[in-house]
Specification:
The chain has about 150 residues and is an all-alpha fold. It has a domain at about 90-145. It is built from seven helices and no strands.
């Protein structure tokens, strides 16, 4: 569990530094820069905590129940309940989870289409087995997905 300082700052100072933090993160231009920033800025425990919070919503949206999510991610059912509430009644968290699922469906569609095309072309008997290899690679990528 992360530690919070026993010396709190005033609301005014908090609001200012929070705004600077959000502005800093939103100005990072690429996925790579964001990943590098968080890798340096957050401890491994803090990174795990944040990604689990997002994963709870994704798994709930996919139909997993509280107990399944709790066991899979090793979080309390209270934590699952908190993010289930946000998923049902929040705005930005719910929208973010929906966007993740939408992007996942788009990627799945394209991977499925590519796999079918590679399968058809591999049956056509091209020399060297390139299409067969491509079909197998696409299939393996689909199977490795964590969610």
């Amino acid at each position: 569990m992360t530690q919070v300082s026993k010396y709190p700052v005033s609301k005014e100072i908090y609001d200012t530094i929070y705004e600077v933090f959000v502005g800093t993160v939103s100005n990072l231009e690429t996925k790579r820069r964001v990943a590098r920033f968080f890798s340096e800025f957050l401890t491994p425990t803090e990174r795990i905590m944040l990604v689990k919070r997002l994963a709870v919503g994704v798994l709930l949206a996919k139909g997993y129940n509280y107990r399944q999510v709790s066991r899979l991610l090793r979080v309390s059912t209270t934590t699952v309940g908190r993010y289930a509430f946000l998923l049902n009644y929040g705005d930005d968290y719910k929208d973010t989870v929906r966007e993740i699922l939408r992007n996942e469906k788009i990627e799945e569609f394209f991977l499925g289409t590519a796999e079918k095309i590679a399968g058809i072309l591999s049956m056509a008997g091209s020399k060297g087995g390139s299409w067969r290899y491509l079909k197998e690679e696409i299939r393996n990528k689909r199977l490795k997905r964590p969610f």
